[in-house]
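Dear all,

This email documents one entry for the complex benchmark we are building for the journal club exercise. For each entry we list the sequence lines for every component of the assembly. Then comes the predicted three-dimensional structure of the complex as a token string, followed by one or two observations. Please use this as the template for your own entries, and keep the labels exactly as they appear.
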Amino acid sequence: MWCMRVGGENIEDMISVVGLGRVGLPIAAVAADAGLEVVGVDVDEKKVKMINRGENPIPEEPHLSELVRAHGGNRLKATTSYDDASECDAFIIIVPLLLDDNHTPDTSIFEDAVRSVGRVMKKGAVVVVETTVPPGTTENLVRKWLEEESGLKLGEYYLAHSPERIMTGYSISRLKEFPKVVGGVDEQSGIKAFEIYKKFIPNLHLVSSARVAEFIKIMEGCYRDVNIALASELFKLANELGIDFHEARKYANHEYCHVHLPSTGVGGHCIPVYPWFLIKEMEKRERLNYARLLRTARELNDEMVNYWAERIVLECKKINKPLKEVKICIKGLTFRKGVRELNHSRNIVLAKLLMNNGLNVFVYDEMFNKEKIEELGFRWIEPKDADIVFDTFELRTILNK
Amino acid sequence: MWCMRVGGENIEDMISVVGLGRVGLPIAAVAADAGLEVVGVDVDEKKVKMINRGENPIPEEPHLSELVRAHGGNRLKATTSYDDASECDAFIIIVPLLLDDNHTPDTSIFEDAVRSVGRVMKKGAVVVVETTVPPGTTENLVRKWLEEESGLKLGEYYLAHSPERIMTGYSISRLKEFPKVVGGVDEQSGIKAFEIYKKFIPNLHLVSSARVAEFIKIMEGCYRDVNIALASELFKLANELGIDFHEARKYANHEYCHVHLPSTGVGGHCIPVYPWFLIKEMEKRERLNYARLLRTARELNDEMVNYWAERIVLECKKINKPLKEVKICIKGLTFRKGVRELNHSRNIVLAKLLMNNGLNVFVYDEMFNKEKIEELGFRWIEPKDADIVFDTFELRTILNK
């Protein structure tokens, strides 16, 4: 096995990163660049081969290609087999945790990864969860799964949480500059995890527990979700009152005021997901009122597609054509500009909503070609050929040519 | 009449400030300090006399006393009579606009001031509303009232809105540094008002309409109200989950995340009032859903006293005394630390709530003596003599001696 440790000197310098996605690969690459031996585990065989050839599977992520080229197949070895990571002193787990149709956390992929680590980890190993999870998950579920698989008890291994705070498109710079927190399920675990991260994360902070570390990440997501809902609500109000929202926002914002931008809702795999961790936990505890603002904001964000559909229909009616013949172009499907991701895309929902109402809907996105758009079940159009263009990233006006 | 203009040179340099309260007096003093002749109108005869003697009726406001001492009775002349302001070229109206018991704006004091200005103003006068009002108030109600009283038509006089953005305790520095906006009900009005403010406000911006100017101020208040509700909600959630909110907040906050501090609700005459302007307007328009987040936040903030009452009772039960004998000290009644104001004080509501439940409640506030506390219907205590101290400005813990 090619991941075998060679020297005895850097005894803690071999780590595994479990999950080589948009967050895991930048972490693995930065750790390798800092001099650690990194074993990256991923289920995707094609991706694993690319990385080992020094090819970056996420070429749009700035600075990542240089790192993968420099370390892929050398200090950064990718594999589909957990066995190749058995010698590692630390495991950083960063695989998806999704929501089911009922907004309840679906831990199946996550549990599978944790149990796989439990099966190969050796005594003294440090396991760190980077996946954003509901508070208490690390100390309760992850600990239980690891101990069931490994037969080890806490103290014979160490367990901590360190939430990823990467923003796609800024992953490398975030790891190098942004404050990162780490919290253990016990004191020793926190210290051990801190020591490992310190080797490749400059702006690192030890917090009092894994649970606090988990909550920090969720808190951020909730702040964003509520403030995007607030911006959308203020946008609707301004529009209703005949006020230019963007002009007002420009002067309202200052050191103590941070009104966000309105949107068609909130997409991506972070912000629309994390509030549900708290809402669902409170539902279980019969304290639903404790998450009332979070729930209202979540609902409002999800309902924004209805507001925009109505606005678009109103614009269509101004055009001298039968309503169902007006060519509508929904421009931009990705959840953020310049990011090639469709998770929780609200504009897919918006386009389908308009289609289901019999309107003449087309789609354009500079990140995807005609074939990909058609694969998603839409008709492609160049914005210049449409009667109306709804530009997600430019909500100021619906362009009516 | 002693306010008569003397020279012909500074033909636009005589202004009236209507309302010499915590906002109006600093504006009047700063304008006088910049060299304008200022006629301050207020209903309070005692205050008027003090100002004319150079005595500051709001001594706790930093730097205000120097200005009143320097200009009171000279360039800043106070009066109870609008007739003394009849020669002024501009009128800045900054009197209270309150809510009635149904949260509907009560414009009676405000209308009275506007009509009084309408009765004395001369042709060519510029009227600027600084009072925060529901959007559209300046161009609709204020215009109507002024024209009914003066017989003038827009163009024969000018009308604008420039929302005060003063924070008690920082009034003078805010006027000197903070961005201030001004918007006219027509283009000429905006320009005229801008020219006058430019003489004493360095950081001044002309916006496209009075309505936008009105909305800017309300938007700020709504941002604060929703974010205080969010902080309180996250505090409750953290506490329920056994997480130290303040530790988590410290690391959650950064350039893009501004989680506020939890509270017993929101007091003062600004933040808890402004969201209602929008909520009530949407109620009228049967678009209540457009203000749903604002309303939820408002309700949550108002309900926080119930949460704290329950928490205090739980703490009382830990003390080895019959519940109704535990001496509870509610420390701090004012809506903000160091500010001698009780408007919308949520701690008065909290203290009364506990009293109505038969608990042994006392009150302490460093801004008020024993007599004043008793006048408010409370028993006074020194915190050291209580069994439990609930410190509004330090919500981390309920001190249990």
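Observations: The first strand of chain B starts at residue 14 and ends at 18. Confidence is low (pLDDT under 50) at residues 1-12 of chain B.
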